[in-house]
Write a structure and sequence with these properties.
homodimer; alpha+beta; HIT family, subunit A; 3-stranded antiparallel beta sheet; 8 helices; 14 strands; globular; DcpS/DCS2 (chains A, B); HIT-like domain-containing protein (chains A, B); RNA 7-methylguanosine cap binding (chains A, B); hydrolase activity (chains A, B); HIT-like_sf (chains A, B)
C-alpha cells in the first residue's frame, strides 16, 4: 500500500500521532482487537482507532515466522495440544500481541480441520428434507453421539451446572455453553436443551408446539436474568442452528453484545422468535410445521451433508447416505 | 494468565515453536488476523495457529500507546480524517501489525459514533409496525436521504457501475456495494436495488410479489456469475437487513466466504430465500405479506428507533416520532 498523500501532509499527520494524549477508552471490539481512544492533541479533541492488522502471508514472512517470535510463554499443554502467548515486539514492556496454538504431532484430520474449507449454499425443500436429510439425521442419532446430551438430561453429568429445569414431556433445562467462561457477561452463552427426544431440529417444530415453545422461551429468559441480575431480558438473543451440530433440539441464548461471527450468521442461525412468528402465520392446521418450508443455508464442502447429499444432487448423481 | 503446566513441560513445549519449519499456509481467517500453518518439527508434522491478541487496556498501556508506536506511515488523509500503518515491534524487518485511524479535530458526534453502544432486542409485532415504525419510515423517506438511490435509479450517477438492469414497474439493478474493493472475490459484496418506490423494506413484500422476487433473485445470481465466471451460484448468499439503513428495498449479494460479522447476524439479516419460502407458506390471500408477522431484531441504544419508539414503549411512556 502506497500513500497518495502529498509528502508534507503525510509528515504533518504522522507527527500528530505521538502527540495524542489519552482521555479515555471509548470502545474495544472485534474480539478486543480494535480499540477506539478519545484524547487530545494540542488541547483539541481527537479520536484514535487502532486495529490489529492482518498477517503478512508472503513466503519470506511465513518462513521466518516461528523464529521471529519473542517471549514465548506456555499457558497450558494437554496431550498433543499446547497454547502460548508470544510477541512480535522486541520491546519487553509491550504486552504479548499473539496467541499461539501448537498441535504436535498432528494427524491428517487436524490438517483438514485447519485448512480453508469452501462453503456452498443449498436450498433444502420439504422434499429433500423428507427424502435425504431426515434419514441422515436418524443415522447420526443412533451412533451414540448424543450420549453426552442424554447424560445431562438423565442427571448423570453436569447437574451442578443446571440453571433451570422443568421435567416431563415438555421439560427442558438451561445450562452454560461449554465455550463460555461463565463470568464475562457481554459474552454470555447458555444452552436450552429439551428433554423429549422426538424433536431433532427446528424442522420438527409444528404449530401445535407454539404454546410450549413460548413457555420455554419465557422461562429461559426469566431464569437467565434471575441468575445474572445485571442483565435485562431485551439484552438476550435466542437462536437455533440449521444445520445444527447435533440432532437433539437446543436453543442458544447469548448476550446481544456477543461478537456475532459465522455462528450467528444468516444461512446458519435462525432467530427463535422469528420461527415462532413464522409458525403462527403458517397456512394449514396444527400439524403444519417447519418441515413444510424450504430452508436455505450454507455448508462446508468437507461436510457429510454436502459430500453425501447436496453434491450428488447438484451433479445429478445418486445419493447414498 | 498464569500457566498451570509443570515448568519442565512448559520449557519443552516452548522450545518446540522456534524449531517449527513451514510446509505451507493452511488458512487465513478472522479478517486475516489468524493464520494456520502446517509445518514440521524434527520431521514430524505439526499445525501452528497464530492469532493477533486483544489489546491490553490497562491505563498504563493505553496512556503510552500513541508514543510506543514505531514506523508510523500515513496512507491517506482527507479533511479531518487520516489513516496509517504502524508497528508495535522495534524490529524493522517485521511488517506493520497495526492499522490506525485518526479523526482530528473530532466532534461530539464522532465520540458518540466510536463509543461502546448497548444493544437491545425488540419484537416488532404487525401492530407496532403499522402504528409506529411505518410512519417513522415515511418520515425518513421525505428528508431527501434517498436522493443517492434515486440518482442511481434515474441514471444520474454510478451508471458505469451497473452490472445488470431491468426497467419498469418490476425493474431493478445490480451494482457493487461501496464497501467492496471490486476485485477480491471471496469478499464480493453487491447490491440489488429495486426501481419501484413502494417497497421500503422486507415488510412490504407480499405473496403477490413471489414470482417477481424469484425472478429478481435468479437474475441477480445469473448476472453475478456471468461477470465473475470463477464463481458458482451456490457460492452466493442473498439477504436483506431489518431494520435496513435506508428505506428503499435492496438485497445484499455476498460471497458465502465473506467473513460474517454483525451485519449478517440473526437479529439483523434475513435470508432472502427463507423470506420467499415464508411468503409461500403464509396463511391468507395474495395480499398477505411480511407485514403480518412479528420480526424480532436488535437495535443500538443510541438509534432513533430505540430512543423514540421502543424505549418509550418499554417504559410505558408516550411515543413521539
Amino acid at each position: 500500500m502506497t500513500s497518495t498523500t502529498p509528502p508534507d501532509v503525510a509528515a504533518r499527520v504522522e507527527a500528530l500521532i505521538p502527540r495524542f494524549r489519552l482521555t479515555r477508552l471509548l470502545n474495544q471490539d472485534q474480539a478486543g482487537r480494535r480499540i477506539s481512544l478519545l484524547g487530545t492533541i494540542d488541547s483539541q479533541p481527537g479520536v484514535l482507532v487502532a486495529e490489529r492488522a492482518a498477517f503478512a502471508t508472503d513466503d519470506d514472512h511465513l518462513s521466518s515466522f516461528s523464529t521471529s517470535l519473542i517471549g514465548i510463554k506456555n499457558l497450558g499443554a494437554n496431550d498433543i495440544y499446547a497454547w502460548f502467548l508470544a510477541s512480535t515486539a522486541l520491546d519487553e514492556d509491550q504486552p504479548p500481541d499473539l496467541k499461539l496454538n501448537l498441535i504436535y504431532p498432528c494427524t491428517d484430520k487436524h490438517v483438514k480441520k485447519y485448512s480453508a474449507q469452501g462453503l456452498r449454499v443449498v436450498t433444502e425443500t420439504p422434499e429433500i428434507y423428507a427424502k435425504y436429510i431426515r434419514p441422515y439425521m436418524q443415522q447420526q442419532r443412533v451412533q451414540g453421539r448424543l450420549n453426552w446430551v442424554f447424560n445431562i438430561i438423565e442427571g448423570r453429568t453436569e447437574q451442578e451446572d443446571v440453571i433451570y429445569r422443568e421435567h416431563g414431556e415438555e421439560g427442558f433445562l438451561l445450562l452454560p455453553d461449554l465455550n463460555w467462561d461463565r463470568k464475562t457477561i457481554p459474552s454470555l452463552h447458555l444452552l436450552g436443551l429439551v428433554e423429549r427426544r422426538d424433536i431433532w431440529s427446528v424442522r420438527d417444530l409444528k404449530r401445535s408446539h407454539i404454546t410450549w415453545i413460548k413457555h420455554m422461551r419465557d422461562k429461559l429468559l426469566d431464569s437467565t436474568v434471575k441468575i445474572y441480575p445485571n442483565l435485562d431480558k431485551d439484552q438476550l438473543k435466542l437462536y437455533v442452528h440449521y444445520q445444527p451440530t447435533y440432532y437433539h433440539f437446543h436453543i442458544h441464548i447469548v448476550h446481544v453484545a456477543l461478537e456475532a461471527g459465522n455462528t450467528q450468521a444468516t444461512g446458519k442461525a435462525l432467530g427463535l422468535d422469528n420461527i415462532i412468528s413464522q409458525l403462527e402465520n403458517l397456512q394449514g392446521d396444527d400439524n403444519a410445521g417447519m418441515d413444510d418450508v424450504s430452508l436455505t443455508y450454507h455448508l462446508g464442502e468437507a461436510s457429510d451433508i454436502w459430500e453425501k447429499i447436496y453434491l450428488p444432487l447438484k451433479e445429478g448423481g445418486k445419493v447414498e447416505i
